[in-house]
């Protein structure tokens, strides 16, 4: 009697596991997909990236006027 019950319970469990695993996997995939979508939304698009490229140089976050001024001062050769 107990053995039969155990066997029945075992059968039910084995029949349910793939479903559980499948559900867990699908929710994981969904969360990963959502996270990826959110990150992509934060990242600049191709067009925005292309717009930020100036004179064939990629515009970086530190390329301010002061920075460019310093660069100009460094490049100018001193003639003695």
Verbal overview:
The chain is 74% helix and 5% strand. The chain has a two-stranded antiparallel sheet. The longest helix is centred in the first third of the chain and has 41 residues, at 2-42. The protein is mostly helical and 80 residues long. It contains three helices and two strands; from the N terminus they run ααββα. The chain is rod-shaped, with a radius of gyration of 31 Å.
Short description:
This protein has 3 helices and 2 strands; from the N terminus they run ααββα.
Largest sheet: 2 strands, antiparallel
Beta-strand content estimate = 5-15%
The strand line-up of the biggest sheet is: 1-2
Structural class: mainly alpha
Radius of gyration: 31 Å
Number of extended strands: 2
Pick out the low-confidence regions: none
- Mean of all residue-level pLDDT scores: 68
Write down the overall geometry.
rod-shaped
**Helical content class:** over 70%
Number of helical segments with 4 or more residues = 3
Order of helices and strands: HHEEH
Distance between the first and last residues' Cα: 107 Å
Keywords:
about 80 residues; mainly alpha; two-stranded antiparallel ribbon; 3 helices; 2 strands
Q: What topology does this entry show?
A:
Layout: H1 2-42, H2 46-52, E1 53-54, E2 57-58, H3 65-75
Antiparallel strand pairs: 1-2
């Amino acid at each position: 009697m107990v053995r039969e019950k155990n066997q029945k319970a075992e059968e039910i469990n084995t029949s349910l596991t793939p479903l559980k695993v499948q559900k867990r996997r699908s929710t994981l995939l969904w969360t990963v997909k959502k996270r990826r979508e959110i990150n992509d939304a934060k990242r600049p698009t191709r067009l925005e990236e292309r717009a930020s490229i100036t004179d064939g140089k990629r515009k970086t976050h530190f390329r301010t006027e002061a920075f460019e001024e310093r660069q100009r001062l460094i490049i100018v050769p001193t003639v003695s």
